[in-house]
Give the backbone structure.
Amino acid sequence: MLGYYLDLALRSFKRNKVLTLLMVVTLALGIGASMTTLTVLRLLSGDPLPQKSGQLFYVQLDPYPKDRPFSRSGKLPWLTTYTDAMNLLHAHRAEHQAAMAMTRVKLIPTTTQQRPFFSNGVMATADFFSMFEAPFQYGSGWSAADDDNRAKVVVIADYLNDQLFGGANSVGRSLRINDQDFRIIGVLRHWAPQPRFYSLYLGGPNYGKGEAVFLPLQSARAAGMDPINSMSYAAGDKQVIENSPTIWLGLWVQLPDAAAVSAYQSFLASYAEQQVALGRFQRSRIGLSGLMPWLDSQQVVPDNVRMQTGLAFSFLLICMVNTVGLLLAKCLRRTNEIGVRRALGASRAAIFAQFMAEAGLIGLVGGGLGLMFALFGLWCIRQQPAEYASLAHLNGQMFLCTFAVALMASLVAGILPAWRACVVTPAPQLKSA
Amino acid sequence: MTLHPMIAALRKHKAGVVLIALQIALTLAIVCNAVFIIYARVQNVQRPTGLDESNLFMITQQWVGAPNGDDPASIQKLDAMMNEDISALRSMPDVESVTPINSLPLFPSSWNGAMSLKPGAELRAGNARTTYYFGDENLMKTLGLHLIAGRNFTAADVTNKGFRDPSEANLVIITKPLADKLFPNSDAVGKVVYLDGSSTPSTVIGEVERLQVPSVSSWASSFVWNSTIEPVRLNSNFSRYAVRTKPGRLDDVMRAVPSKLYAVNPMRVLDDDSVKSFKDIRAEAYRADIGMAVLMGVICLILLAVTAAGIVGLTSFWVGQRHRQIGVRRALGARKIDILHYFQLENLMIAGGGAVVGVALAVGLNRLLMSKFEMESMPAYYVLVGLAVVVTLGQIAVFVPARRASNVPPVVATRAA
C-alpha cells in the first residue's frame, strides 16, 4: 500500500512542481538552521568526562566580608584562597582532591630552529591526573611529595610532544619554561575535555585544544608563575598570593557515592563554621556542586549560541506553519481526486495514510536537503574564529536526528491537511467533477 | 465594497486563514526581536573608543632570560630594556609617536580597580570603578586622545615601577565620565583621589573627553568610560607598546618592527599575534557581535521570503478555487480592479489580524529574552514598524495571484457548472 501512496505522492509532486519545491526548500532551510545550531549547542553543553562526571564536585567557600560581598545577588565566590584549598586538601576527606590554577607559560624549544612561544599551562596538585582520568602515553604524573619538594617536573600534552620531540618518548628530557629547566616525567595522550570544566574562572579558554603543560602547583609558584586570574577581596599585600586575601584556585573533589557527598558536605560546613569561629570568615556559606550542575549553573554555553538555537527553532516552527498551509492548499485542490478514490472504495484511513505518506516524503526529501544545509552551516562555523569552531562536526547521532526531526516536522505539518482530505464527502465532488 | 461577503467567504477557509495569520504573527514577533538585537549589537560595535584608531598598532613581547624578581636591581634592568625598545621604535622612519602601555581599548587584557575620595577605603568600597592605563608622556599623542581640561604629563612626571608593586602614581589623568561621577558639582582638575584603597593621595591633573575600557564583556558595562591614565612605565618580563605611524605607513612599519626589535635584543618572544594593528584588535573584539548580527539579518530575510511565498501559495490556491465565482462576478459587472481590490482587502484583513496577534507575541518574546539574556526592553516603534512591514509584505505577495484573479474573463461563468 505504501508503495502505491508514494507513487501517488510523486505524481502529485510532478503536477505542482513549484509548490512542492517551495515546501521542500522551506522545510530544508528550517531543518538545516536548527540542526546546525543544535549540533553546536550539544557540543558546547556536552559532558566533558562522561564516565566520571557524576563523581566530581566543585567546592566553594565564602571568605568575603559581609558588607562587601562577592556578588550582590548572593553568588558564592568562584575561586578559593590558597589557605582554604590547602586546608581542605590536607584533610584528605574525599577520595581524590586537587587544587588548580591556569598560568601563561613561555616555552623555549631546545632546538635553535624554533622560536620561543606562549602557551597555557595548568598548575595543579598531585591528584589532578588520577581524578580527571587523564590518559598517559609515556611516564606518569607527579606525587604529592614532588609537589611539596617543589620538584621541577612537568607533564606535557601530546601535541607539544609532537611539536618538540617528534612524538618520541620524551620522558626524562628537559623542557625550558619561563627561563627555567623542568624535567619531563609524563606525556599525555590526546586529552581535552569539552567544555574545559576545570579552567572555568581560571582564565583559560572554555573550549578548544587542551593546555600544553601541567606543572606541580608548588613547583610552578616557586618558579615565579602567576595565575591568570586572581581576585582580591580585602586590602592587603598582593605580592604573595599564598598569604594575601586573594582567591585564585579552583578546587575539585571526587566523591564516589551519595553517602560520601553528604559526609563531605557536613565536613565542609563544619570547616566553614570553624573558620567563622577563627575570625577568618564572616559567613559560613558553602557550595558543593556536581560537575554538570556546576557547568549548567555557570552558563558555560555562550549566550550567542543559545540565542541562535532559539532563533533557529522558531524559524523551523514558521517553516512548518508554512508547510501546513501549502500542503493544505495542495490537498484541497485535489478534492475531486479524493472523491473519486472514496467512491471507488478507499476508506478514510486510506486517504489519511495517503496524504501522510505524501507529507512524509516531503519530510525525507526536505531532511536530505536540510542535511546539506546543516553541513554547509557547520562548515561556515568551522571557518569562524570561535574557540570551539574546530569541533563543529555532525556525528552519526545528529545525522539520524536530522532525518527524525525532518520526518516529524513534516508529519506534524501533514496531519491537518490529511485530516481535511479524509473528511471530504465523495458525493458532491463527483457531481461537480 | 462591503466586508460582509468577504468575511463569509473567509469562514469557508478557516484553516488557511488561521495558518496565514499565524505565520504572519510569528514572523512579526521574530523579525522585530531579531532586528532589535541586530540594532543593539551594531550600536555596541559602532561606539567610538576615544582613540584616533587609524595608523595605530600595538606590540606585545616578552623577553627571554630577563630578570623576574621584584628587587630594585631587576626592575631597573627591565626598565632599561624597555627604554631601549622605546627609543629603537621611536628612531624608526615613519613612526610618529610611541608609548609603553599595558593594554588598549577592546584588547582582551585589563587592569581594573576602584577610585575613591577617601584614603584607605577598601577595594570594593571605592566611589567609582575604573580601568587603569599605564604609559608615558607620549600616551595622549600616540592614542590621539582629546584633553579637555588640565594638562598632559611631562617627561618629568613619568616614573617606573615593578609589575607587582602596589604603590600608586601621584598624578593621574581621568576621563570626563569618571570625573563627573567623582566630582559631580565641580572641576576635577587639581582634586585629590585615592586609587585602589591606597592611603597615598594622587592628584588629577587632566581630563580626557573619552577613553573606553579594554573589556567589551557585559561585566564591564557599568564602567565602560571610566578610565584612568597613570604616568608609569610598568616593568615586568613582558612589555607592550602602542605605536602611531605617519598616515598610510602603518603596514610598512608593522612589517619592519620584529627585525628592529630583534636587532635591539634577540632574546625575546615575538609571535604572529605580537604586532597587531588597532583595526585587527577592533575586529577581533567585535567579531562575535558582527557574526551574530549578520546571521540574524540573513534569517530575517529568509523568514520574510518564506512568509511571502506562503501567502502567494495559499492565495493562488484560493484564486484557482474561486475561478468560477470570479467569472460570475465579472459577468455581473464587477471591474477587474474590483476583483484585484477584493483579494487585496482580504489579505489586508488576514495580515492585519495576524499582525495584531504578532504585536502581542513580539512583546512577549522580548520579555522572555530579557529574562534569559542581557537585553533591554524593545521600544514600541519597532513593533509598529514591524507591523507596517508585514502588512506591506502581505500586499506585495498577494499582488501576483490577485492580478491573475482579476484577469479571469467573465465568460468563465458560462462554462460547465
